[in-house]
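Q: Hi! First time doing this. I have a protein sequence and I read that you can turn it into a structure. Is that right? Here it is:
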Amino acid sequence: MKILLSSCLLAASAAMLAGCHESAPTPQTTVETVSAHVVESQQQPVSEDLRATGTVHAKETAVISAQVMGRIQQVLVHEGDSVRPGQTLAVLDDSSMRAALSQAQAAVKAAENQQAAAASNAKLAASTLDRYKQLQTQKSVSPQEMDEVSRRAEAAAAQLDAAQAQAQAARDQAHNASIMLSYTRLVAPFAGVVTARMADPGTMAAPGVPLLQIDRTGALQLQASVDESGIGVVRRGRRVPVTIGGALPGMQGTVAEIVPAADPASHSFLVKIDLPASNQLRPGMYGTADFTSGTRQAIVVPRSAVIQRGSLVYAYVLDGQGIAQLRYLTLGAAHGDLVEVLSGISPDEKLVDQPLDRDFAGKRIEVEP
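A: Yes, that's right. Below is the predicted 3D structure, encoded as structure tokens:
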């Protein structure tokens, strides 16, 4: 009886162990399928560009400063004001200059009176000398009298010369005083726009200290710095693509001037590029110019397949099974509707086009025609 129970227990245990070794069924994972337009990465030759950055400036800029020392009474313009040639921009205290001019004018009047008196004396002395010469021919005057009259005529002529010189010196001094008075009114040298105001009424102006800056109305230039390693591709008269402030692409500029000496600190050359007329251009705007120096092979993708979120740049790339994987990218230069990819993409890979804000990661892509 004991043997029979043991056999039954052994048989039951064997059945339980056999059941434990049977494999459990594996659950099937489902991959979501979505439709999207797909583009491919390509390897193709692209232009080798030298990018120069700079700032928009007027072709002519005038920095207005005082030529005499004086306290500023009025500043009649502000930044952004348009000015015409000869328009008064600022006025200095002119009280001392007016006093100096009044003194100089009084000195002129006194000197001219002395000149008139000296001229009268010289005329009288000359006429007296003429009469004595006639009497001398008639033997009616002595040689001593003739000598005395001649010396008086010479002295009167010398006094007239001195009076004329003094009068001219007084007039020159009055003219200089008038010029100094004119320096108390600062005027615009040409038609333009005030781009900087560095002083206010009450400030003491000194010669050479900037007070205002005016940019001439008219054409503008992009003044860009070109590294010394690439200055060889820059030529005067060459037309180059220019982008201003990221808002004015597709503009063509012309190289007008290349400053021949490099900046010893940055080892770069200043290149001035004439810009076409545009109401959207303003001095001070940031701009770039691209000088093509050759071609090279690069991997490019359409811009529409690239997503930028702050400092992150990525795209949805399809694997061998057509499932989209999020891939982070490092971008290079843009070439029209294409953008160069420095890392993250290989040639002939498929990318989801125009992903916008949709999340395609881990989803199977059904390619739209």
